[in-house]
Amino acid sequence: MNTLPDISETEGSGFRPAPDMAEWMRETFIDEEGGLSHDRHAHLRDARIAVLWSSHEYERRGQRVLGKAEQPPPHGIYGWDRGRMMQQLAKWFGGWFDGESPDFLITLYEPYVANCLEEGRARAICALVEHELCHCAQQTDEYGTPEFSDATGRPKWTIAGHDAEVFVHEVARYGAYSDELKDLRTAFEKGPSTDEAVVRGVCGCGAPVTG
Fold first, then answer.
1. Within the chain, what is the greatest distance between any pair of CA atoms?
2. pLDDT tens-place string over residues 168-184
3. Are residues 18 and 52 in contact, defined by beta-carbon separation less than 8 angstroms?
4. Of 114, 123, 115, 82, which is closest to residue 16 (Cα–Cα)?
5. 196 occurs within a structural domain
6. Do the strands 49-54 and 104-109 form a parallel or antiparallel pair, or are they unpaired?
7. How far is CA 133 from the centre of its chain?
8. Has residue 131 been placed in a domain?
9. Which of 5, 44, 105, 197 has its CA at a distance of 20 to 30 angstroms from the CA of residue 145?
10. Strand pairing partners for 49?
């Protein structure tokens, strides 16, 4: 079984391409025979997914950001800004996809993942990675049918939002008042569907799953 790459002795700082991590993510969560494969990610077997490590701490709305999925370059970026971003993407990932641009770019906060590895928190790493993969979606039409490009025949991609946007306070006061929250409650009541031994195996920490 493919295990998480060792990042304990990485060099440099800032942003760095993470080809080993990208391969682990694909073989673990996306490929049909992956240890944590799920039908939800089946559409990503045709996707070009690039991965970056970041050593920069980043906060958004008062919360530390541990990962981010996006479609490069971001929409609304033009002129020199867009050209600069495209040049940087080509430098990082020009050899990854036969010269084609990535469909998705996933950035992970390296110190957090390294700390989880050191502490043996396999489930935390897998949850972070799969959270970002859940954002990587295929466009659908008004009937829910997946859409494909007329020009290339490849899927049309988009960034999916979260299934539920809530505060703990509102749930504590009003309970599962929406369909999304009811689905979330059902998921909590069922408990994790992944065997802990499998999570330890694909993560490679070799320690108990603690969170």
1. 53
2. 889 889 888 889 889 98
3. yes
4. 114
5. yes
6. parallel
7. 3
8. yes
9. 105
10. 104
Question: What would the pLDDT profile of 94-112 be if each residue is shown by its tens digit?
Answer: 999 998 899 999 999 999 9
Evaluate whether 180 touches 188 at the Cβ level (below 8 Å).
no
44-82: b or e for each residue (b if 16 or more CB lie within 10 Å)? beebbbbbbbbeeeeeeeeeeebbbbbbbbeeeeeeeee
Place of tokens 């330890």: 200
In the chain, % of residues over pLDDT 90: 51
What's the one-letter identity of residue 35? Answer: G
Tokens of 87: 């040049």
d(CA 189, CA 154): 38
pTM, entire model: 0.85
Q: Which residues form the domain of 31?
A: 15-203
d(CA 47, CA 102): 8
CA–CA distance, 34 with 118 (Å, rounded to integer)? 24
108 domain-assigned:
yes
34, part of any domain: yes
